[in-house]
Design a protein that fits this description.
Largest sheet: 2 strands, antiparallel
Distance between the termini: 10 Å
Number of strands: 4
CATH topology: Alpha-Beta Plaits
Bound molecules: iron/sulfur cluster
Order of helices and strands: EHEEHE
Helix content: 10-25%
Strand order of the largest sheet: 1-4
Strand content: 15-25%
Length: about 55
């Protein structure tokens, strides 16, 4: 897993969870977590309206 989610920036909108093709993102209480299914495709980072996700390829 090579994405970073900034918990302080995240607005908890859920957009990234819906767009992830691998089902790697999960809303946990008031933040988002990525699991090992992440393929670093970068879609979540593109969809995030506040730029809270950083993908390292
Ligand atoms: S980089 Fe792609 S696979 Fe990984 S969490 Fe984001 S949308 Fe899902
Ligand atoms: S798209 Fe961005 S703001 Fe929305 S839940 Fe995901 S990380 Fe948070």
């Amino acid at each position: 897993m090579s994405i970073k989610i900034n918990r302080y920036k995240c607005g908890y909108c859920g957009a990234c969870v819906g767009v992830c093709p691998s089902g790697a993102l999960e809303l946990v209480e008031t933040w988002v977590e990525a699991n090992d299914c992440c393929t670093s495709c970068g879609l979540c980072a593109k969809i995030c309206p506040v730029g809270a996700i950083e993908v390292n390829k």
